[in-house]
Specification:
With about 325 residues, this protein is α/β, with parallel strands linked by helices. The chain is built from 15 helices and eight strands.
Amino acid sequence: MATYLDFEYKIKFIQESIISAQVRHDYVAVEELKKKLNKEVEKIYKNLSDFQKLQLARHLDRPYALDYINLIMRDKYEIHGDRHFRDDTAIICYIGYIGNEKVVVIGEQKGRGTKNKLKRNFGMPHPEGYHKALRAAKLAEKFNLPLLMLIDTPGAYPGIGAEERNQSEAIARNLLELAGLKIPTISIVIGEGGSGGALAIGVADKFAMMRYSVFSVISPEGCAAILWNDPKKVETATNALKITSQDLKDLNLIDDIINEPLIGAHREKEAAASAIADYFLEEVGKLKAMNEEERMAARYAKLTAPGAFAEPEVLQKM
């Protein structure tokens, strides 16, 4: 059964009415209801608050990395394990085709249902997950294949075992190694991009976000707990953090926003998957048109551009 957020209930009612009219073969009513649905979708989704966008990024029906991989890849084969410790299923890696392009895809997978969520550790990778991602990235480089990374995690796993196996070093190693890959790389936030857990597969030639995805150094819940010690301040924290795709685009921290369907990827999964595939193929074409030296120079300029500073007035006078 589909899950509806509180601000989606009018849409739920109209969609159920459409199904009922279809069962009655009342096609006149169906067309009228579809028009009404389109107006309601525009009214609601063009006026979403930042907190509502956060809710959509975490929506239970929102496609996860594996959903997109199954929709956009063909002749795919999964890559398992980090060849050091174990196979972390919070990170998934595939080699296959998107369109006519042979590619490697790395994604963070949250899992559905209690059993699968536990198996995937709620999309929170251990160090061996990041080691596996790096192994797949290096494999892509070895065979000169473009790399697509799909970000969707509340953050890297903070447990004792992960810390014992040096979680921070695993993330830092990925930042360093991904920055130096000689192949075209594209990273897309498809849902929730949390802190270092997202950055570990977020260094790329092109960094994009889905329309209703979020990207942040800390979760709004964590921010509310630290700043106010009040869980009721989550919405306030969400507004203050500037975590939506449009916020980050305005700050020049991401390259592009992928326009998933206005009603959301959770309602039109195939259309959202097509938007990702189209974006990836278009950007890979542009990156391949550059030679390696041009691509690396552009990547370096992009990675060193964020941030600004101003000299204190007292230093300017010295």
